[in-house]
Amino acid sequence: MRAPSAAHPFGTDRQGRDLFAAMVAGTPLTLRIGFIAGFLGVGIGAMLGFVSAYYRGTLDAVIRGVVDIGLTVPGLLVLIIIAVSLRRGLTVDQMAIIVASLAWLNPARTIRAQVLSMRERGYVEVARLSGMSGPEIIVKELMPNLLPYLAATLVNSVSAAILASIGLEVLGLGPIDSPTLGMTLYWVNFNAALSRADRDHPGRLSRSLLPHGGPGRDRQPQAAESDLTTDVLSVRDLCVHYDTPLGAVKAADHVTFGLRAGERLGIAGESGSGKSTMALAILRMIKPPGRIAAGEVKLDGVDLMTLSDEEMRRVRLDRIALIPQGSMNALNPVIRIKEQIADALRDHRVRMSARETETRVRELLESVGLRAEVADMFPHELSGGMKQRACIAIAISLSPRVIIADEPTSALDVVVQKQVMETLARVQENLGASVILVGHDMGLMAQFVDRLGVMYAGKLIEVSPVREIFTRPLHPYTRMLIASLPSLEQKGTFRGIPGLIPLLRDLPPGCAFHPRCPQAFDRCLTEEPALLEKHPGGWAACHLT
Amino acid sequence: MRADYLARRVGVFVLIVWLAATLNFFLPRLSGQDPVRATLLQQASLGGHVQMGLEAMVKEYEGRFGLDKPLWRQYVTYLGDVSRFNFNYSISNYPRTVNEIIAEAIPWTVVLLGTTTILSFTIGTLLGALLAWPGAPRWMRLLMPPLWALHAIPFFLLGLILMYVFAFRFQLLPMFGGYSPGAFPALTLRFVGDVLAHAILPALSIVLVATGGWALGMRGMMVTTMGEDYVTFAEAKGLTRLTIFLRYCVRNAILPQTTALALALGNILSGAVLVEVIFGFPGVGTILFHAIRENDHFLIQGIVFTVIVALGVATLILDVVYPLLDPRISYRRT
């Protein structure tokens, strides 16, 4: 055995064979094994995956069963049995086929999953409806779309095959006569094992390398409860910007409004108008790249923007609670409902015994019209409406001053919508809390809120009592929004608002609504209107009134 | 539902064990003649160290297997033996039985593999969770590239590198074996220390590689989980960061990690076999290596079967524990 030198860059083994030469000779052989096995594996795997996912049914169940079981059995050991049984005179190609005998399992599984997600897509549906046969769809529609994925699978498969073959060869189960990389390792190791017999290695204990216990966790210090006196929410010039490479996008721009005690305020607008952003901004829950650029949010006279993170955390739920969108999976799927109420109580330092907590949880659930047994259930055991009631129960658990309901009934059917809204109305009256209802359903707004604000392109463009806004809207956009509601008198006609919402990062100058406004005049093109009180209680940002 | 789920998992386990046993029986017979017999004859003709017991062994062997009987009878007899974990004598170590040899090696492998898997899974999962968490210290991000790199190296290759650096170059740690030659196995502080010193390098080559894999997997899952609605709602509930991190993010992100662990056990084991061989660690892998070299079919079959059963048990345990972690599982029809 010689150390690396100029003549032998990698040195030699015990028999004096040059290891560099062995590497040069062995690499193509090992690659050959890898490629043959990799291609075979992906080929067979892809075929099975396609058939399995496309035809489903019994065939799928059988193929998946075989693959699942095959993947559970340790591959190297099965390959060992195969290789041991066939050992005499293995060639490189036979080696490749042995490796390939298991290499199709993984591709079959992953490709099946890919095809499954793909077969539901529109263009496959269309092809099926237009009368294409199964194999035709597989070849013409699915294959082209899966090619990039197949290529990636192939790379993985080849490298896995190379590793598997080297693994076998290191154990001495490869083509004995061929200097593949693994066989070279085997010979080196084999010889090393021989030479070890006559060497002695006194063991040395190295305690410093022993693992210690895990790192301790620090508990956050608890700040003193801030003393907030009674008054309600006032939002002034709230700006939320999203930093993008093209500059700041103003998702909420100088939003200003007040919320009176016990009042229900609606915030309406099309999707993308910034209403949900505003709701999250009040809770100071805007995530990067978004940030609250300016403004103040005063709750009972205290500006939330000046609080520390820890103080703000305590304000959430305790003073301002959020009811999430009805379409959200807002409940942790792996924790029981009662635990999801109890952890909120615990983190707000509500001192209660286990029994008191239990009672409180049941009270809360009953107050939103849920049976007490729901406490012990998991979210997946509840219907959409029940989940949303559970969320309301959480939201009212600390009797907040303000409840922000962000499209609480989206994705619920109409009957359940009504029940949820009635529940919300009832608990709000019991608590005497104020509610901000965010949504785009003007009908719902008309029934529920006292006052309605309308947002457009990140700005609040009108705030008026709900009765007035429906009878005497001040802003042309509000007027068109209400006109777009289907009504009983004008059955059959459906009027939308012409044009599209402008891109927030590319707003028109002047009033953002002017390109769609039928009454726009030159002042609207240049000067941005401010939100002004047009008559007592009626505020609008428009040059017309 | 629970019972149904459990029954299905146990069924799969039995199926795997049966499959392994059957492969073990039929594959060696595919090459025409009975390779076990061929091996015995070959060993006898070499006149090596086995000769002394050969006659007795052949007798025992023929009597037990009834080679003159039809194949299916042999198969039934074989299944009966296997179900009692009876693998006969080791050819290369006669008159020791396969069971004795395996029993001697198993503690080494179980401790090495158990410790390293638990360590790397725990450390990797925690590390991955922190890597994705915005509140974690910034320097942690520097760990990403090395984790990626380590993750791509096969266990045994890292083992060779570590051996070269720490045992050969700097001679800080022993290179080979489970304990120093000449040390007498006993429960003394000295011997235990010796064993630990020998185990560090093999363990390190598994832990370093595997930790990277778990960390990367967990990081990906955490990023997905942190975007879930329930995490947003958890924040709106005013929960502490610790509660959100542990109960909402980690608690959910760890579910696919556990599934991945069940799927990866086989791979980890395959890799560890090679690490044992490289370091001459006296576990099951090294025995397997020697058994293959010496054509000891009984020993090979015994080891392969034992390992597959052990893995099946480990997977079964994970499968049974999983519904406790994810309440949805027992309701989901797979």
- The first-level CATH class name of the largest domain in chain B: Mainly Alpha
Rounded mean pLDDT of chain A is 81
What are the low-pLDDT stretches of chain B, counting only 5+ consecutive residues below 50? none
CATH homology superfamily of the largest domain in chain A? P-loop containing nucleotide triphosphate hydrolases
Q: Taking strands numbered 1, 2, ... along the chain, how are they ordered across the largest sheet of chain A?
A: 6-7-8-3-9-10-12-11
| Dominant shape of chain A | elongated
Oligomer: heterodimer
**CATH architecture grouping of the largest domain in chain A:** 3-Layer(aba) Sandwich
Radius of gyration of chain B: 24 Å
CATH topology of the largest domain in chain B: MetI-like fold
Strand content of chain B: under 5%
Number of helices of chain A: 18
In terms of topology, how is this protein built?
The complex is a heterodimer of chains A (545) and B (334).
Chain A: H1 19-55, H2 57-72, H3 75-85, H4 92-103, H5 105-119, H6 122-129, H7 134-170, H8 181-196, E1 234-244, E2 247-258, E3 264-268, H9 275-282, E4 290-299, E5 302-303, H10 309-315, E6 320-323, H11 337-347, H12 354-367, H13 384-395, E7 402-406, H14 414-431, E8 434-439, H15 442-448, E9 451-456, E10 459-465, H16 466-471, H17 476-483, H18 522-526, E11 532-535, E12 538-540
Parallel strand pairs in A: 3-8, 3-9, 6-7, 7-8
Antiparallel strand pairs in A: 1-2, 1-4, 4-5, 9-10, 10-12, 11-12
Chain B: H1 2-26, H2 35-46, H3 51-65, H4 71-83, H5 98-132, H6 144-152, H7 155-169, H8 189-226, H9 229-236, H10 241-279, H11 284-293, H12 297-325
